[in-house]
Amino acid sequence: MEYLFFDVECANCFGGVGKMCSFGYVLTDESFNIIESDDIVMNPECEFDWYLYKNKNDIKLAYSQEFFRSNPNFPNHYERIKSLLTRPGVKVFGFSSLNDVGFVVTACERYNLPVFDFAAYDLERIVKSDDEIFGSLEERCRILGVDSSDLQAHKSSDDAVMTMRLLKAFCGKKSLSVESVMKSAQNVLYSTKTFIKKREERKEKKLRQARYAESRKNSRGGGAGGRKKTPKSGASLEKRRRDSRTITFD
Question: pLDDT digit string (tens) for 68-97?
């Protein structure tokens, strides 16, 4: 058995579509010995969210926009990424893996490429079951005493290595095997089908909310003269921050 840890970074997630700019991974054996690791950098062929390069932003991409744009786009890496995620006998792990699964799905759809089936265990959910361990990937590694000083946050390959070290440390702390962790975490094994189902559920929820809002408006006679709410100054910034990180389902 082999383990594949992966992480995806996106230039933006506007419209619920992740424009992938890097796919990092580390492939290990059952003892966490690294077989291979790489950061597959690509041209997202879109604008970069300005927030990703804002000086005070805590999410900074590992490379310049120019470097990303100088690389081939996702279709040029499709077969390699597919072969990694569907490798026979491999078990896949991520941190907040439903989002990363979604980034792969939407990248395939964006370029009219077949969406392939794979599933990834979500270490964010697995480790979160322990009340002593919480926070970001970097914070959880720190709590578990994982040395990540040689790694760069938000460099996809380094985040994949950090995810691998997190699982190794967690298993050591709890005296668990990876097999036993996987066995108890079937509810957080997220597949491409899971992502697509949740996306459809979210669309239905938004439609219901829109219909309800319209009916309320009509029942009040169109709401003429009503005051329009103006969001607080930080609201739009925080929304952009969330959109830069993830595809949400709530």
Answer: 999 999 999 999 999 999 999 999 999 999
The CA-atom distances, in angstroms, between 3 and each of 135, 150, 163, 182 are: 24, 21, 11, 11
Closest CA to 62 of 131, 143, 162, 144: 162
DSSP H or E segment with residue 170: helix 156-174
- DSSP lists the bridge partners of residue 41 as 22
Using one digit for the tens of pLDDT, what is the confidence trace for 132-181? 888 999 999 999 999 999 999 889 999 999 999 999 999 999 999 999 99
Q: Which 3 state secondary structure label does DSSP give 10?
A: strand
- Cβ 156 vs Cβ 23: under 8 Å: yes
Tokens of 115: 């969406």
Residues 6 or more apart whose Cβ sits within 8 Å of residue 242: 248
Q: Is the pTM of this model over 0.90?
A: no
